Amino acid sequence: MSQSLQYVDNFLEMLAVERGAAQNTLDSYGRDLRHFTDFVGSAIADAASDDIRSYLAYLEREGMAPSTSARRLSALRQFFRFLHAEHANDMRGDDPSSDIDSPRRVRPLPKVLTEAEVEQLLQAATTFKGAEGIRLIALMELLYATGLRVSELLMLPYPPLQSDRAFVVVKGKGGRERMVPLSEPAMKALQAYDGVRARFVRRQEDASWLFPSRSKGGHLTRQRFSQLVKELAKAAEIDPSKVSPHSLRHAFASHLLANGADLRAVQQMLGHADISTTQIYTHILQERLQELIKTSHPLAE
Fold first, then answer.
1. For the chain, which terminus, N or C, has the lower number of CB atoms within 10 Å?
2. Active-site residue among 135, 197, 219, 249?
3. For domain 3-87, which CATH number applies: 1.10.150.130, 3.10.120.10, 3.40.50.2300, 3.40.50.2000?
4. What is the rounded distance in angstroms from the CA atom of residue 301 to the CA atom of residue 295?
């Protein structure tokens, strides 16, 4: 084994022993570091900053996604920090990755359902019969009315409302609580569901959830809800790849902003800690406005 690969193996061993890295993580780091070693054609431990820049430029020319290049740079950074910390006395006293800028990562815009498509989904939900159909309507109306994360929706406590007010109190990321108002259709769907909810309570300990089930956690699972949403998309004759529980959250935000809602208010309802996370939806609106100009302005041609 070459000295370079020995250093790589030592680094991977450190990740496994000291940081408890999963095998998939170790395999990924190993592939990335060996790929860089093949590129530089010399001892990886002797690589300079220019070698790393040349490598990133090569990845870009090869059409590598910025996210993948950023991941590989992250592997290199951690490796060289390890060498610098563990072997500074006998190898090198610098970190060649310290002044390398990360590849610019373009955040993909979420797929957004149109208002008409959401209406199709809600209408299709009414064709599902029995208690499960009533529950599905409640799930969809609540999700579109509140923009909750899927885990927040499925882990709502019972009863979900505070006294007689049309608000749900949601515990989001970091244990932060927020109040989200309900629409009238969502309130009616909840009232209808309340009449059949007892049929889903299999064990007494599950009764504390709004959407109880026989799952290990005692509430409806993300996997089962995702399956239901895919079935609903087929019934609504909408491409199932376009529809997911999370796409309803995106629809909630983008439709509110498209109809004049304040960005800060949408941020609060979504439970975003940083306004920059919510601002991604303004890009969606900008695209729509540009398309509107192209198709509707009399001088567009």
1. C
2. 249
3. 1.10.150.130
4. 9
